[in-house]
Amino acid sequence: MAKPVAAGGPATPEKKGKKKTFKKKERKHVTHGIAHIQASFNNTIVTIADQTGNVLSWKSSGSLGFRGSRKGTPFAAQQAASNAANMARDHGVRSVEVRVSGPGSGRESAIRALAAAGIEVRNIKDATPIPHNGCRPPKRRRV
After folding, report:
1. CA separation (Å) from 26 to 42, 57, 63?
2. Is pLDDT at 110 greater than 80 in this prediction?
3. Nearest residue to 104 via CA among 134, 70, 137
4. Pairing of strands 95-101, 120-126
5. For the segment 123-133, what is each residue's pLDDT rounded down to a tens digit?
6. What are phi and psi of 117, to 5 degrees?
7. I want to staple 38 with a disulfide (CB 3.0 to 4.6 A). Which of 25, 45, 121, 140 is the partner?
8. How far apart are CA 14 and CA 22, in angstroms?
9. Is residue 117 within 8 Å of residue 82, measured between CB atoms?
10. Distance of alpha carbon 66 from its chain centroid, rounded?
11. Contact 50, 56 (CB under 8 A)
12. What is the edge-to-edge ordering of all strands in the sheet holding 95-101?
């Protein structure tokens, strides 16, 4: 005859094994970085990297929730730059060189937001690619 089993089922043995240990996310201590601002007509992307090019933080107008034509506005670029600057300050960034590329309207406002967030802007370089009569342009639009 079988032994009666308790209502909870058979007694479960105590779990023995390794306890999960989580690695703490390490913070880099970088004092000087490079801020890349890619300002197109439709969006603005702000990336802050260290001197070797490893990305510390980035934000774009689209990732902040701006949609449609509002992504390309100076206000959206300002928000993206200030958020990226705050994330970079956690890594210890105090000063940046700014490299701006693209014809968008968020160029100046992104640089002002970086300075307002407490990061010293050392120098500003325009890295917009300029064609030297390279590709053939598309044929003219007929409306």
Report:
1. 34, 14, 24
2. yes
3. 70
4. parallel
5. 999 999 998 99
6. -80, 0
7. 45
8. 22
9. yes
10. 15
11. yes
12. 55-60, 44-49, 32-39, 95-101, 120-126
Task: Identify the residue whose tokens are 């730059």.
Answer: 81
Give pLDDT, residue 88. Answer: 93
Amino acid 30: pLDDT: 82
49 vs 51: CA distance, rounded Å: 7
* C-alpha count within 13 angstroms, C-beta hemisphere, residue 110: 35
Nearest alpha carbon to residue 83 among 61, 55, 52: 61
Contact 39/103 with Cβ under 8 angstroms? yes
C-alpha dihedral sign at 33, 73, 38, 58: positive
Label each residue of the chain as H, E or C.
CCCCCCCCCCCCCCCCCCCCCCCCCCCCCCCEEEEEEEECCCCEEEEEECCCCCEEEEEECCCCCCCHHHHHCHHHHHHHHHHHHHHHHHCCCCEEEEEEECCCCCHHHHHHHHHHCCCEEEEEEECCCCCCCCCCCCCCCCC
